[in-house]
Amino acid sequence: MGNPNGCIPRKIPSISQCSTKDRENHVVMSDLDGTLLVRRSSFAYFALVAFDVGGILRLFLLLLAAPLAGILYYLISEATGVWVLIFATFAGVKVSDIESAARAVLPKYYSEDVHPETFGVFSSCGRRCVVTASPRIMVEPFLKKYLNVDMVLGTEISSFRGFATGIVASPGVLVGNNKVAAVERAFVGCPMPDIGIGDRETDLPFMKLCKEIYMVPSRVGVRPMKPDMLPKPVLFHDGRLVQKPTPMVALGIVLWFPIGIVLAIIRIIMGALVPQSILSYVSLPFGFTIKVKGHPFNNIRDRNREIARGMVFATSHRCVLDAVLISASLGGKSATVSYSVPSTSEWLSPMKTVRLTRDRDKDAKVMRDILDEGRHLVMCPEGTTCREPYLLRFSALFAECSDQIIPVATTVKTTMFYGNTARGYKWLDPIFFMMNPFPTYEVTFLDKLPYDRTCSAGKSAHYVANHVQELIAEYLQYKCTNLTRKDKYLELAGTDGTVGKGAVEKVKKDG
Question: Which end of the chain is more exposed for a tag (fewer CB within 10 A), N or C?
């Protein structure tokens, strides 16, 4: 919400005047919205949770409630306005779903909004605490995991039989005197914090409990910190929304959604029926652009001799349609393999799709059989998608099956919806991708791997896989990691990343 009490008393020093030297033994207590975060309005974060836990209808409900929340905020109290947002977002939702969204969706967007001056002071102290009107269940995962916060005091929501009621638990929304009470309870028997930081007059009561107090002035043009400068970068994140849903962005999403569904159905049917060799041309009138750079057979001297057997196209994995769109760029006669593919995607796929078993010998035989048929094998050795500029560890199996390997670099540009998920319904992935107004897919064929860099020349499969990963990362200017599919799904969904009857296995995360 906004700040009706935006005037800052002149006698209170600005956060820029706070020294960061010799603070290792100090305790800092900071407000969140407008203080530790640049953005003063928390609507976007409520909207992210609303869409993730309740879809477009819940987002629409929140959008309808937002004007009422704003009016109550200014006319009655900040607490009343915040409560309206909490009720519209959480009422009737499983608490476990809220926790999941807070862990997997929100950190990416919070990390893009950290105030540089406040964080400079905040991170210099030995013990860090946050007190906020936002629900603790929403903010705690990000603050503790990515900003190394020791204590989070936030508004508590009530629940009944595992479902949020939308009612705020005692002592209510943490603003004004409620913040004071929360801080006093948290530090009972201990010295009060050394530094108190806020951004509005309603923060003064809790700030006055601290030895030093500083205000974060509301300044237009303050740029958040770069996310990679935080103590821990956000490598994995989930959720469907690409942009941070401000009220105007959220309204655009709600209005576009029915149009997007119709457009997605048309695009998917077109992709399934149109010959792959002309897909990139036919898709243009429907707003879907496929850009192809390089040529898969540029540095093959005797094409007829060298590719009588199929070739392996090892690609970075950015969306569920990678294999289909690369196959279209090749003109067809391709196949792909996957450890887990939704039945709907498999049925709609215009190319041959083969399921793997996770039995290394059997899977290697399946892949060799495809190549022996003369089909090109398009595969994603990462095993799962990564939205950030990182490449996950490449599985080495593809390197054992052929010495005809072409690295492929792919990028995806979408403005509204992500076409992949770790926690949602996988069969919706292609639909959400195709719902974007003007999605762009770019595929770049790099040079074929030299013979002396393949297993046939004595290199290990792991060496080949790592080398291909490095070539693609260098072209895309991404960073290579040793993280795997399992790491991603453990962090985002608490599963081992497999799908299918009897395959999904819940895994308890350490700590």
Answer: C
